[in-house]
Amino acid sequence: MKEKKAWKINGYLGILLIVCLLGLGVFMGMKGYILVAMFLFVIGALLITGIATVQPNQAYVLTFFGKYVGSIRESGLFLTVPLSIRKKVSLRVRNFNSKTLKVNDVEGNPIEIAAVVVFKVIDSAKAVFDVDHYEDFVEIQSETALRHVATKYPYDNIDELGMTLRGNAEEISNEITKELQDRLNVAGVDVVEARLTHLAYSTEIASAMLQRQQASAIVSARQKIVDGAVGMAQMAIEQLEKNGTIDLDEERKVAMINNLMVAIISDRGAQPVVNTGSLY
């Protein structure tokens, strides 16, 4: 069902019309026209039921004997369809904080994940008639979309290849927003934004995964140190040969490279050994 505008007129004009009808009814009753007076009183009483006050960023969904007759989105005082049942719907932007969900990522590792969803109603008729309790619908669909996206990617990737939940938070949030929007179109809800608020390994594997991350960081750091040490040793030999300071054979080059590598890569400070004899 699609939203449409309900019939309405200015509420102050409607109140003036009601007062005129009631006053005319009193006048006709005093003149002895009882049936006409009763008719005017009934019409005035019916119109009173059509008076509605709409607050800013609210909508009234009107049904008349089970039939949807339209919605009022403008704020103010109005006279609308008499005897209609009015359902108030908020059009304000609202937040929904999901519960911390425990799911398995694509590699089967249990993780904890939560998100905040910013949404607003853009079609009051769909929100009221196409789903039961659209607030609950938003909550359930948000958690469903969050679970689905979380199972498509790994929490982290040692090789730093592909998209991960931890390393690509912006892309993951955009995907959650898109998937959630597809799910909530039926309820007339627009998803403004969806952002992760919590992401961590579950407690039962958090310690093991922390050790893995530490080991990965150590290996990566060692690799950079070795690459730097090789470059420095190569630069030292090339500089010596270029300046003609000393002529080293292959054996002495290997010894020099070994000493430089040990000095640079060692966890502790290297102890210098002074050679007071012949180089060879």
TrEMBL record:
Keywords: Hydrolase, Membrane, Protease, Transmembrane, Transmembrane helix. CDD domains: SPFH_like_u2 (cd03402). The chain crosses the membrane at residues 9-27, 33-54. One of its GO terms (biological process) is proteolysis. Residues 49-213 form the Band domain. The keyword Transcription regulation does not apply. The keyword Protease applies. GO terms for molecular function: peptidase activity. InterPro entries: Band_7, Band_7/SPFH_dom_sf. This is Regulator of protease activity HflC (Stomatin/prohibitin superfamily). It comes from Bacillus chungangensis. The lineage of its organism: Bacteria, Bacillati, Bacillota, Bacilli, Bacillales.
